[in-house]
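Many introductory courses stop at the sequence. We go one step further.
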Amino acid sequence: MRNVLITGASRGIGAATAKVFAENGDNVFINYCHSEDCARKILDEFKNNGLSARIVKADVSNSEEVNRMFGYITEECKGIDVLVNNAGIAQTKLFTDITNDDWNRMISVNLSSAFYCCKAALPHMIRQHFGRIINISSMWGQTGGSCEVHYSAAKAGIIGLTKALAMEEGLSGITVNCIAPGVIKTDMTSELSEEDFTSLKNETPTGTLGTPVDVAKAVFFLADNSSSFITGQVLGVNGGFVM
């Protein structure tokens, strides 16, 4: 049984990923920041189905809270074997309207959080000579998105972090990979209209939109031993929207 931490796991992609790992026999730590009710609902569902999980509150954009979270995890088990850096926020704004606060929050939640969690998880992974780190970026981190400059920059940073860390940790038995989702129906895309979704669906070669489970299954694949020769890669889960 592996110990798995998924940040931002109270809903959407994070919640679906937690479920996939738990259903496959892993011990899952469900991180949340504000959505305690959602996290507890997921935990109750897991326990009712005999799945192993705990919830842990932390604002992962804050290094002190990350360190406290990992302190708790260390008390509960030896450490994290699989880290999924999923926590993130989105915002649509013209570049000229983005404030310094908007920029700093976007970078803190979407990029600094991954740095803090990787830094806290790695000592245990290095000691045991095994670890899987999967970072969630976005197709806009690959191509850039109009009216999402700060979001795109943060998600591009995730890709750079992934590639560099993979090179550094390969000899320690640790793989570091990245998922770049396309259009996935979650709370983060709830501001889009049905007309927007129809247009995006028509632009996608598969003619469909993605689901959180699509991403979750890709994350699980990259955490599996069968993918041990894959590291430093960006896997696009986007229906062919970006090739």
